[in-house]
Amino acid sequence: MPSGPCSFGWPERDLCCLSDEQRARLALLRSRYEAGLLRLIAPQAKLQGEALVATAHVVATLLNQLPGMLKALPEEQGVGLMESMLVGGIERTLR
């Protein structure tokens, strides 16, 4: 399972315990991560502006949440399902 996106899970879960400065830093890091992720997986994306930002946020959120949602499945099956869902959604959305 991907390890990068999961690193946002614990700070987001405990957001109420962070200071305003820590929350602002986390938001900045997440937006940079999302922008870089989308450039990496869909460099030819035709979406622009807020639609592209929203797409990046959804993809990052899915990468963060899917491992937990699919943990009941055998690892190989869970990874395959996660890949299929993400690749299919990305291909259709970013055409």
UniProtKB/TrEMBL annotation:
It comes from the Bacteria. Gene3D superfamilies: Tetracycline Repressor, domain 2 (1.10.357.10). This is TetR family transcriptional regulator. It comes from Pseudomonas monteilii.
